[in-house]
Design a protein that fits this description.
Helices cover 33% and strands 21% of the residues. With 449 residues, it is of the alpha+beta class. One of its GO terms (molecular function) is protein serine/threonine phosphatase activity.
Amino acid sequence: MPVPVPQQRSVPAAETSHGDLTLLVIEDDPAGTTITVPELSAAAGTRVRVRTARNLTEAARLLTDDVDCILLDLALPVAGSDSGPGNGPVSGRADELAALTHILRIAPLHAVLALTAEDDTELAAEAVRVGAQDYLFRGELDARVLSRAIRYAVERKRADLAQHQLTESRLRAQENARLERGLLPTPLLDGSGLSFAARYRPGRSRALLGGDFYDVVRTPDGTVHAMIGDVCGHGPDEAALGVELRIAWRALTLAGLCGDELLSTLQQVLEHERQSEEIFATLCTVDIAPDGRRAGLCLAGHPAPLLARHGRPARLLPYEDGGPALGLLPRARWPRRQVELGAAWSLMMYTDGLIEGRVGTGGSERLGQDGMVAMVNGRLDEGLAGEELLEAAVAEVRELNGGELTDDVAVLLLGRDPERIRRGGGSAPRSRPTSPVVARPLGVQRPPL
């Protein structure tokens, strides 16, 4: 008894995921396949819906999303204009696989079984190499063999698709990582005599960039300019905006802008690039004089830096004269405050991710700036300095928080050591961060902090 042609409706794929299968048989002579639906159901232990098509045109009409597997007769006649991937003439072995290549092209997400004669093993193997999940011989076809082949083909196709998606995801992740790594800053401090170290941890999972950003450059007049900022939010849009602001800051700084003029221009950049008017960014800029003994400080809604002089406890720089965050007030102003650094010092700039972690039993309190100052001074008493201090500070904040921090964290450390400068230590070659956790000192010795 030939395979019947039941009337079918379009069934969502989820409806066929509980054991039911739909098979599309494409054969010029349906009577040639003598497997009935009851036989298939008994062999499979579940319901099997069967559709039949006499040619590729009819198959395309019946090929809906609920079809799980296609049983294709390789002997199906195909017109030359309807066969190859380019709809051109075919010849040789390609002519024998014309129907298969056509089905693979119009049904890339469906499992395909090739049906051929017993004496054409080479053609059957070639069909698998071209893209079929398996092949069957007409003379050996029975309900149990066909049922097992259908299930095998469906599962193999699902595995192939899953592997393909995983490979694509890995490639995209690698490309994104290369892109994000290329957007991390390269400090330009050659000839400054200052040391540099940084730590950067994005809050987003499996990301290299977050909404926090920083940069350090030395202009031709010998002034060292440092900046650290934070775009509100934690997504990829905020990370992209942070990169735009950092690059704009570097360009404006190298062009000679400083203080209020620079921040006003950055606010214009933010207002034009942000996706909504609710987006804002905090910023802290420091410009260190060529002699390294004094600096200008501008705060735009950002936490004040931490200054440590040789032999003295670290303390916060004044923050009373700071201005609002960028993007909040259209005609805001950001006063520049002069700060005395001294001969030997270290300056730590950070984002609020470092001070907003939870502390105490139950995690009801924040670390805060006072807690951070006490923590840093405790590490100084232990003799830690430079990159070791930054590593210990970030690790302790995570430990106090009881796990990984959800907010982005950026910390950078600039230092001046007159003894090293007199010995001709200078600055080490500039380097580019290569991971989310960055520690690249630019000096031979560590700063006091």
